[in-house]
Amino acid sequence: MKPGDAQRLDRLVADARRAALERGQGYREQALKLYPWVCGRCARTFTRENLRELTVHHRNHDHDDNPADGSNWELLCVYCHDNEHSRYIDHTGISATAAEDATKAATANPFANLKALLGRDE
User: Fold this and answer.
1) Distance CA 92, CA 63 (A)
2) C-beta separation of 66 from 27 below 8 A
3) CA distances (Å), 78 to each of 34, 40, 52, 75, 101, in order?
4) What is the mean pLDDT of the chain?
5) Is residue 61 exposed (0-12), middle (13-18) or buried (19+ Cβ within 10 Å)?
6) Residue of 70, 38, 67, 34 lying closest to 55 (CA atoms)
7) What pLDDT digit, counting tens, does each position of 44-64 carry?
C-alpha cells in the first residue's frame, strides 16, 4: 500500500466514525426531547444523574431509519434494551445487524463431479 493510500484510508475511517457518532447523538437528543424520560417497558423513570442508562431503541431494528417525528424510536433502559435485542435474536436466530448482511445460500455443488475427476469407477 502506498503511503498516500494509508493516509486516505485513515481519513475515510475517521470521517465514517465521526458521521456515525454525530448521527447517533443526533437521534438520541431528538428522542430525549420528544419523549418523557421513562423506560417504555419497565416504566423506570430517569433523571439527569442516570440519563446515560436510558437508550433509544429502533423499533424496526434499522439504525438508519430515523424519522424526525420519532415514530421508529422508543426509550428503553439499558436492561430492557438488551432484553429486546436478545428476544429479537431468539426469534429470528440471527442478530439485527447480521440479518441486514445475510448472504444467500450456495446453489452450486462443488463435489458434483468429484468421482469422475478422481477417475474411480465404483
Assistant:
1) 18
2) yes
3) 19, 11, 9, 9, 25
4) 83
5) middle
6) 38
7) 999 999 999 999 999 988 888
How many residues are listed for the chain in this entry?
122
Pick the closest to residue 75 from 23, 33, 32 (CA basis): 32
- Residue 114, classified by CB atoms within 10 Å of its CB into exposed (0-12), middle (13-18) or buried (19+), is exposed
Query: What is the DSSP secondary-structure string of the chain?
Result: --HHHHHHHHHHHHHHHHHHHHHHHHHHHHHHHHS-SB-TTT--B--TTTGGGEEEEETTS-TT---TT-TTEEEEEHHHHHHHHHHHHHHHSS-HHHHHTPPPPP---TTTTHHHHHT---
Amino acid at 46: F
